[in-house]
Design brief:
This protein is an alpha+beta fold. It is built from twelve helices and 30 strands. The longest helix is centred in the N-terminal third of the chain and has 16 residues, at 78-93.
Length: 527
């Protein structure tokens, strides 16, 4: 599992730090036959004063603590009263117990006292203490923090101490195979130095919307969280944040937040005390091969707009559900995860050009970027829970799609809690061995569009399917409303069953021994 390398203890211990050293591209060019350094000692000596250990204290409320379980006694047993009295005394005596988190950090400005670490190291902290290289212990306060990237900026009085400031380097210049070193506090063992290489770049470990981690095999463990990763120039090119480990210890797979992200976040925390990210106001999804084919896009690329968020920037710019955003502010959008990063880095209030794929061709638009944090405060990007509807008993089967549909009526709206403004046809059943089931369609989903055409009746559905077959398309693109969550799903068309021969028609129907004239209704897919 992926674990944030945070160490928790009941005792305050010296927090650690983490660093990695790496060969930069310029070294690779100037020294094409460069070997591994004989020693990292000089570099470690130079960098030690920039790294700090961090301990943060949180108080656990008494009602969150685990009380002893009450033994079971026979009815009327004298021990029952005894243990009842004991439990009452125990509950009264329980106090808020402090817990301590241990992590690492690094100084970026000695004069101003700025220290960078992971947000999870100081989360919910009531007291933060920083141990410096000269063994002095100082209190620190939080300047700002960003949960989305797991970065926090602290401030402490460092002027009179024997410490130095680290320099943020260029993480984009790092290459796979470059050397890195780590100086940290794994398991409370302060001053531990390890070395390794950049194993991979741009790793997405599903930790957040802006994942772009540097992977390393340098040994980092619990307690290294928030420590810096250095290149061989002594520049910080990453913040150690997570490890992949089945045991909790290092197995040579660690992850660091690139300095390119760190610089942007820290600049905003210094200036505003919080982050200010660009916001577009769209819900997006990946463009699969099937979706690309159904929209005549060719190779999958870009981010598919599933729905718009209120009266956000996207709606004002004329972006529509079903558009594929393939270029933003002059930069190509390679895939779905690329777009949030591009938008987040854009100046708020800036008008930028973007290109969408719509109706089989490129369309140029301009959008004025909003602020993500403001949208969050207004609740414009809140998730909705999806209740599980009961299984209905009626509807008309669409064999090519493998689903049973029914037009909306008051009873159906009531059964599935569908608002009056929702239009389309509701899914009443899904065939077990169908592409619709494999794509996650379930009872209660509302099919709003087929192939970007609104459908409200079974006639609309049949026409859309027929049009797709006539155009030799193997998939149909559905716009699905799942209790307010809008998304596109591309479903492969199955061969429709041959109709049973009309007894009044003397001409024989073509034989189809492998397919019944009237296909049975498939079993419902499990939700």
């Amino acid at each position: 599992m992926l674990r944030k390398i945070l160490m928790t203890s009941a005792i305050v211990a010296i927090a650690a730090f983490g660093t990695f050293a790496v060969y930069t591209p310029s070294w690779a060019v100037s020294q094409p036959t460069a070997m591994a350094p004989v020693s990292f000692a000089d570099l470690a000596d130079k960098l030690q004063p920039t790294v700090v250990n961090i301990s943060s204290t949180q108080k656990l409320d008494a009602d969150t603590q685990q009380a002893p379980e009450m033994p079971e006694f026979p009815e009327g047993s004298p021990f029952e009263d005894f243990f009842n009295d004991y439990m009452k005394r125990h509950q009264d005596q329980m106090q808020a117990v402090p817990a301590t988190s241990l992590g690492s950090g690094f100084i970026i400005d000695k004069d101003k006292g700025y220290i960078v670490t992971n947000n999870h190291v100081i989360k919910d902290a009531q007291e933060i203490r920083v141990t410096l290289h000269d063994n002095a212990i100082v209190n620190a306060s939080v300047v700002g923090k960003d949960e989305k990237t797991d970065i926090a900026l602290l401030q402490a009085d460092l002027k009179s101490h024997d410490v130095s400031s680290a320099v943020l380097g260029d993480s984009d210049a790092m290459r796979v195979g470059d050397w890195v070193i780590a100086i940290g506090n794994p398991f409370g063992l302060g001053g531990t130095v390890t070395a390794g290489i950049v194993s991979a770049r741009k790793r997405d470990i599903n930790a957040g919307p802006y994942d772009d981690f540097i992977q390393t095999d340098a040994s980092i463990n619990r307690g290294n969280s928030g420590g810096p990763m250095f290149n061989l120039k002594g520049e910080v090119i990453g913040i150690n944040t997570a490890i992949f480990s089945p045991s909790g210890g290092s197995v040579g797979i660690g992850f660091a937040i690139p300095s390119a992200i760190t610089k942007s976040v820290i600049d905003q925390l210094v200036k505003y005390g919080k982050t200010r990210r660009g916001w577009l106001g769209v819900r997006i999804q990946s463009v699969t091969d099937e979706i690309a084919e159904s929209l005549s896009l060719g190779k999958p690329r870009g981010a598919l707009v599933a729905s718009l968020t209120g009266t956000g920037p996207a709606e004002k710019a004329g972006i529509k559900a079903g558009d594929i955003i393939i270029e933003f502010d002059g930069k190509p959008v390679a895939d779905m995860r690329a777009l949030p990063k591009l938008v987040a880095e854009t100046e708020i209030g800036k008008a930028v050009p973007l290109t969408v794929w719509r109706d089989g061709k490129e369309t140029k638009l301009s959008v004025t970027v909003g602020e993500l944090e403001v949208a969050e405060e207004k609740g414009l990007i809140e998730k909705q829970d999806t209740p599980e509807p009961s299984k209905p008993e009626y509807g008309e089967m669409v064999p090519e799609l493998g689903i049973k549909l029914m037009a909306l009526n008051p009873d159906i709206r009531s059964q599935f809690s569908l608002p009056s403004d929702v239009t389309g046809l509701v899914v009443m059943d899904v065939g077990g061995d169908t592409d619709a089931a494999r794509k996650g369609l379930t009872e209660g989903d509302v099919i709003v569009e087929l192939n970007q055409t609104a459908v409200k009746t079974m006639a609309d559905v049949k026409k859309a399917v027929a049009d797709a077959k006539a155009a030799n398309k193997s998939t149909v693109l559905m716009l699905v409303n799942r209790q307010g969550d809008i998304q596109f799903i591309a479903v492969k068309l199955a061969a429709a069953a041959k109709p049973a021969p009309d007894p009044k028609d003397p001409s024989p129907a073509p034989a189809a021994p492998d397919q019944p004239a009237t296909p049975p209704v498939p079993e419902a897919a499990k939700p």
